[in-house]
Amino acid sequence: MPEKKPINWTNARTLAALAILVGTELVGASWAAGWALGGLFQLGAGWARGIELVFVAIGFFGLYYFMRTAIAHEPVRR
Question: What is the pTM of this model?
Fold first, then answer.
């Protein structure tokens, strides 16, 4: 088996902070957009929650691809 490279802790901390910051903003904004659309169209509580869940899922999906790209550009292993 090949030897594992040591962890670059500076990059690891940067990526962790990036995940927290971007994740909070992206998921929070998508959740708020779902809530706003549910209220704008005066949907029932069940439909509004469903739209919120769909938008939150889209936010997590976007965060996943964003972090995948960030890790590719800022490798954790040296």
Answer: 0.83
**Cα–Cα distance between 65 and 43 in angstroms, integer?**
31
CB neighbours (10 Å) of residue 15?
18
Tell me how crowded residue 55 is: count the other CB atoms within 10 A of its CB: 21
Q: Are 52 and 31 in contact (CB under 8 A)?
A: yes
User: Residue 3 in 3-state DSSP?
Assistant: coil
User: N- to C-terminal Cα distance for the chain?
Assistant: 18
CB–CB of 18/26 below 8 Å?
Answer: no
Residue 1 has pLDDT above 90, yes or no: no
